[in-house]
Design a protein that fits this description.
single chain, alpha+beta, 3 strands, globular
Length: 62
């Protein structure tokens, strides 16, 4: 999945992802560390690419 040249509003923080998809902090961390969801770190904060997460969840996480 290409995430270069994305819009700023497509990137959300952890709290938005946890609440929107009813995930636990540990599940989100596991998906991130297994590189199953697109994310980027800016300073000390991690941001998640929302369209990428939607795509992955629609396909099913393997």
């Amino acid at each position: 999945m290409q995430i270069a040249n994305t819009k700023l509003e497509d990137w959300v923080d952890k709290q938005v992802v946890l609440e929107a998809f009813h995930l636990t902090d540990r599940t989100l961390r596991t998906l991130r560390s297994d590189k199953k969801i697109p994310c980027a770190q800016l300073g000390g904060k991690i941001f998640y690419y929302l369209p990428g997460i939607l795509y992955i969840l629609e396909q099913g996480v393997n």
